[in-house]
């Protein structure tokens, strides 16, 4: 594809025929993460200037969908899973298991290429963090967050998300 190597090119800049041919020639992998975990990670990394998680969440909600940062914008609006048929969807928290499967499918030796990942520790830590952070939120904020991320929760298997409870 002629424009592919000329810097950053958005998929929308290709016509429909080029898009279809290009996407058909790649293995498409989408990495997803529970939206509530994304909010927690963003807050802990200091990307929000709020003193508390609750006030950070309120900033996110007040920013709305159109002004949302990529760090917390719903995944469905970023990766367009309804338009792009991804070959694999890899969920954060199951990286070791799922990346091993992907590498084997690609014919690569899975064990030697994977970093040391401790999925169970990550899951336990985020479960604990989620409980702590979720308890800081008002009932209204919880409801608004569930609405804000409703399409992510419908599109991806986040059954243990605090937002889907």
Protein architecture, described:
It is a single chain. The chain is mainly alpha-helical. The protein has one domain. It contains nine helices and two strands, in the order αβαααβααααα. The longest helix is centred in the C-terminal third of the chain and has 17 residues, at 119-135. It is globular, with a radius of gyration of 18 Å.
What attributes characterize this protein structure?
single chain; 165 residues; mainly alpha; two-stranded parallel ribbon; 9 helices; 50% helix; globular
Write the layout of secondary structure elements.
Blueprint: H1 16-24, E1 29-32, H2 35-44, H3 53-63, H4 75-79, E2 88-91, H5 95-105, H6 110-113, H7 119-135, H8 139-148, H9 150-155
Parallel strand pairs: 1-2
Helicity level: 40-55%
> Which structural category fits the helices and strands?
mainly alpha
**Series of H and E elements:** HEHHHEHHHHH
Bin the strand percentage: under 5%
State the major sheet: 2 strands, parallel
Rounded mean pLDDT is 81
Overall spatial form: globular
Order of strands, main sheet, comes to 1-2
Tell me the Rg in angstroms.
18 Å
Give the tally of β-strands: 2
Task: Give the uncertain stretches in residue-range form.
Answer: none
Number of domains: 1
* Total count of helical runs of at least 4 residues: 9
Distance between the termini: 45 Å
